[in-house]
Amino acid sequence: MIAAIFHVHWGYYAPSLLKAGLKTLEFTGASYVGAIILGFVLALLRISPTRMARIPAAIYTEIFKNVPLLTWVFIIYYGLSSVGITLSTFVAGSLSLILFYAAYLGEIFRAGLQGVPRGQTEAAQAIGLGRTTTVIHVVMPQALRLSLAGTATMLVDLLKSTSLLVTIAGAELMTQGQIITSVTFRALEVYVVIGAIYFALCYPTSQAVLWLERRLQRGDAISLRRRRILKTVLKLSGDPRTSAEA
Amino acid sequence: MLPSHEPLTNDASDLPPVNGRTASGPVVAIEHLSKSYGDNLVLKDINLTVARGEVVSIIGPSGVGKSTLLRCINLLERPNSGRIVVQGRTVWENGKAASSSELVALRRTVGMLFQSFNLFPHLTAVENVAIGLTRGLGQNETVALEQSLHLLDRVGLRHKALSFPGRLSGGEQQRVAIARALALEPAALLFDEPTSSLDPELATEVLAVMRELSQTGMTMMVVTHELAFARDVSDRIVFVDAGDICEEGPPEKVLQNPTQPRTQAFLARFRGST
User: Fold this and answer.
1) How far apart are CA B168 and CA B191, in angstroms?
2) Do A246 and B162 touch (CB under 8 A)?
3) What is the distance between the alpha carbons of residues B51 and B55, in angstroms, rounded to a whole number?
4) Most buried of A118, A172, A240, B21 (most Cβ within 10 A)?
5) What confidence category does residue A216 fall into, taking pLDDT thresholds of 50, 70 and 90?
6) pLDDT averaged over chain A?
7) DSSP symbols for chain B
8) Mean of the pLDDT values across residues A17-21?
9) What percent of chain B shows pLDDT beyond 70?
10) Chain A closest CA to B217's CA: distance in Å?
């Protein structure tokens, strides 16, 4: 039965699949970093006390959330080229993903920032921490923990969405699958393999994030600085009862 | 956040140091303080002076501006008018705040404790105590941690140094919060209903720490519903009702022989309910 499905000479296509897989990861990496930066800016604008900052950010979010990603891909790749702005598939594809996912990530970050109780800021101010220090060392670490699950979901979602770039011949996995199919005429076999590759990329990513989330929840020191602090405390106290589980 | 007024000019050179107990005169002086939220006048022309080493308990019905009064002192709330002087420095005068750097200095001078403790949940107890020293004052990490452990020892929680707030009882959290405030060697501590969210048993351990602090000469302002604590520990009781100071004096006078009908009514109601 399985032998009946697998007829394609995969050894022959392995190098091009590897290249396509890397292209998928390039799209994902570039878009994710870009979307996180833009999303964070949007979140800051949306919680700003200034209306002039809040309103444009809210309009942006609604527009990009309520128009399909594929439509944005077409507008940016085909639409812009028709008015003389020609972008490479990589730039057009990444730009679409950035603009689209920034809207979602902005919402996630905003919820995270707003989820940190006001008392936290007040307590930080009350011990004489300045505004910037308060944001960096008190609000942000808590907001990031609150945003982590949603942010990670978006990473996996974004990786899968790169498959839409087959429509502009993005040279990623799905495009490569189409090329192999056009030569071998074995659509079932090819797309099952492509699907398996996507799964192999996405599943470990979601598991890694879950693992990170559990560690953060437990309060494990992730940064080297905090590891050093906790070590110093243990050394200073010299008390065997002083442990994280005390 | 600061109103766009000119900062008040405070020539630091001829003023006593902000921290420590070296300055003379009252630690906190409030003159003609008023505060309103929209049309709702919460504080009406409050005058209150707290001397060095004095423990002042602020009592009164809920929602009459006791907490707001306390929060005005370290400018977590901005008063509308009046003057606030802390350690000889004017930090607020008729709608004008000190510069933001002076605001930070003020907040290191007066520590504050909250009803909901407000420990930083992502940091261990010892890091909560140390953060004001390391991130605020830029002190050496090891020195700050050592001092923080010492302060945790003082509130009886050195063995919980590496516990996260989520694993501490409410009473323990408030004691860590006291250590966190003490780390900056404040001239005064403001307690905003520090035991209101605690079971009586846990409240007792926090009150014990506060009692001990008062014996070391710490200047304290305590908004509280613990009349027994107010009676035993404070030098003076201030009864606030409907936004102004209705009556003040030594505990035995205010609690045993109140002259104002509103104080009498409050105490009768309070004792009736407990």
Assistant:
1) 20
2) yes
3) 9
4) A172
5) confident
6) 90
7) ---SSPPPP--GGGS--SSSS---S-SEEEEEEEEEETTEEEEEEEEEEE-TT-EEEEE-STTSSHHHHHHHHTTSS--SEEEEEETTEEEEETTEEPPHHHHHHHHHHEEEE-TT----TTS-HHHHHHHIIIIIS---HHHHHHHHHHHHHHTT-GGGTT--GGGS-HHHHHHHHHHHHHTT--SEEEEESTTTTS-HHHHHHHHHHHHHHHHTT-EEEEE-S-HHHHHHH-SEEEEEETTEEEEEE-HIIIIIS--SHHHHHHHHHHHHH-
8) 93
9) 91
10) 20
Query: How many whole angstroms separate alpha carbon B189 and alpha carbon B218?
Result: 7
Among A125, A233, A239, select the one facing B76 at the smallest CB separation: A125
Tokens of A91: 């730039």
Partners of residue B100 in chain A, C-beta under 8 Å = 130-131
pLDDT at A153 over 60: yes
pLDDT tens-digit profile of B223-255? 999 999 999 999 999 999 989 999 999 999 999
Question: Of A173, A149, A148, whose CA–CA distance to A161 is shortest?
Answer: A173
**Residue in A closest to B159 by C-alpha:** A242
